[in-house]
Design a protein that fits this description.
The protein is an all-alpha fold. The protein has two domains: 189 residues, Clc chloride channel (Orthogonal Bundle); 175 residues, Clc chloride channel (Orthogonal Bundle). 71% of the residues lie in helices and 1% in strands.
Length: 445
Amino acid sequence: MEPAPVPEPRSRRFLGRFALAMDRTLLLLTTLVGVLAALVALAYYYALEATFAGIHWLSHLSVHGEHIPVWALMAGVGALIGAFYKLGHPGETDAVVDNIHVENGKIDLSANLPLIPVSLLSIAAGGSAGPEAPMVHLTGSVGTWLHKRLKLPEQYLRPLTFAGMGVGFATLFGAPIGSTIFALEIPHKRGMEYYEALIPALIGGLAGYAVFATVTHHGLGATWTFPAYHFSHPRDLFYALGMGLVGALGATAIVVAIHLSKKVFDGVKLPMFVKAALGGLVLGLLAWKMPGTRFFGEDVVNEIAVGSQSAGFLFALAGLKALAIGVTLAAGWRGGIIIPCFLTGVCLGKGMSLLVPGLDPTLAMICGAAAVNVAVMKVPVGTLIVLLTMTGIDALAPMSVACLVAFLVTGGLGVIDSQRARSDAKKQADVDDDDEAERDTDIPA
């Protein structure tokens, strides 16, 4: 005869209910963050639209009967961008990722003040970077603001930050699930590690996306119109593998361009407004000769997808786009490079389809886009889901191959220096705490 089960102690039952209540509180808070982040995203979205309109009007002013040349316009806007650095250093993805690791997700709210005008001007004037990075910084900081405002427990901070970041990506990509996973993957070089934040962040991301999409109708349905493609033959997996390698090469070009450009501009000992103006001049000259390098490239992706460009033109555009990305970031212009990475991969894919017999152009373009972004940003699963949503193409298996190949062969390649393993981040935080404690003990009484 089996002994009667021992009843669970009351203290344990109470703690279990308390933990469940805490979880419910966190889910409610991430929902609130999602809604608030959507309001921030709406404000930034309409501010960007207004800035685009202002720059467009300025570009059509006549001087002695002629419009202002694009290189002169971008150099002038660059000087204005540099002047806003007087407000402080604008927020950037590298700092956000570092704070996720060592500050439990706290984002520097003061960095938003210079980030807003700098990023709006950078994007609207034609810098080769998009709104995703500033948008994610702004929406991610909502979690920090709410945490501070309500004096919440420390363990809530990181999930709230992830929820806000997911909203930022979702409002631009129209892919709330993929965008949230994207936000959770981006702190690491080898895949998502803050797994416990997944469900709270998803709930916040979906809540924010629902609000933003209801108001703007942006992000409903596919973003781009590619020629139809259906995965129906195993050979396409081998084509996808090849495009993963091609995308890895394209990503290497982007990373090298960014690092070399930063080295050059860091070596220029001039005021920030002069550096940003020089960057605008270079970007304007590139756009003058190759208009497709200007702006972050969302519209150009559609033009490439349905156009009839030559392979030489496509490879040249991919190379010059990589250079434009590097100059944009190095000269102090602000923005994200995810859409520019997608554009670079689309150019490489379309070009390869013109050279390789039997390679479907749509398959090549979407695999190229996925591979380049994964190799640069180190976000394989998020990139896959985001691109499937933005293209509406049935190509899960081949795109997965391209993503994983690019992810594995590029190793430590990347542009976000603060990406690292969760365990490494904890060790670094412990070392910092020990150093701080040692400094405190050295202070005389």
